[in-house]
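ugh ok fine here u go
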Amino acid sequence: MLNATRTLLLLCLAYICDAYSSWNPFQRPLRQSNNHKDAIPSHHASRAHHRSSTGANLPLHMSNTASIDRTTTTPPSTTTPLSPMTFAGQVEQALLSKFQESKIERVLQSWRLLELDYEHREFVGNQQSPPITDADTSSCYQLAPSYVPGLKAVAWWDDVDQLSWANSLSKSYPAIRDEFMSVMSNPDKLQSDGNNIWAGALTTDAESYGDGWKTLVLLNRGQWDDTNAKLFPITSKAIHKSGVPVAEAFFASMKPQTSIKPHSDFTNFVLTSHIPLVIPENGNNKCRLSVGDETRQWLEGKVILFDTSIYHDAVNESEEMRYILMLRVWHPDLTKEERGALQLIYDCLEIPELLSTDPGMVVMAEQRANMMREFPLKDEGGGFGGSRLGGNKGKKGKGKNKKKGR
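structure:
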């Protein structure tokens, strides 16, 4: 019974991981899933779109609103603790042993809602600035099966420029882009040395992104991909040093003349940030992203932050590939304790020995979890192309990369 429950949770998790993610469950960006378990975002793949190529004078919003589910739901009661005889109940007990209950009440509600198969659906137009009042025609609806109550639902976070981590990554953009282009210039080496390079959708939900969306993962659910991080040392270090509260990080490509349908990434406790790296016809409105009722174009080097639990879609109307660096970051309204509790849930799903009744096994599992979250790069640099792009050369020049399987 416990093994069957855990298997189901891991399948859900896998889905999440591929955020915008693409999609190999254990390859990871967050994948969209109907469960917490998958919850931490995974973006890696889906959306199809429908816009016509009308150029820079395109109307503000062009989403296919016919595909928006405009129903609303009300969360059921979550006052009853989960049975300790179930895997989910054991996770809940682990949370209560690590954190004061009053400090993680919203996470406990979220976990219990997930077990009840609750899907949160809500019109969030009234939270926008200025407020949107026409719920019958608006696309500003939230869909979040992985739902932490009480978090602000704003489509576009326009104060992103005031965030220190965003400013840090913006300053690192030229070096990140140069490294990306250098590594991409040798695709055969990237494929042979990297891990799940430009992976596509593995699940039905993720496939809605279409064939045009692929990802290359650096970090998934708080765990660095050692192999890929070492292929992109400048980018990985820039992310790490920026202090961004990141749960996932990956490159995402979008083929020319493709689109992604309106959809939700199913999780409201992480936001999505893009650092556009290569935008064809930059500034000419050929590559666009819609969130809620507003459409904006990607602009190279301009960091954006938005809520992908709100219906959103994208399009590349150019004749060339579009590339971005995508981050899934913890929602700013979460407390430190709530972030820690959510991370513990993911750790338990990945390492069930954390729930063992054997203290020694728990200690080893905790050590393993800490090692999996440890940043894999030292200050010496590394990665092919890294030394000539600003990385420290070290005494022997380029570092050597050993591919690690997963």
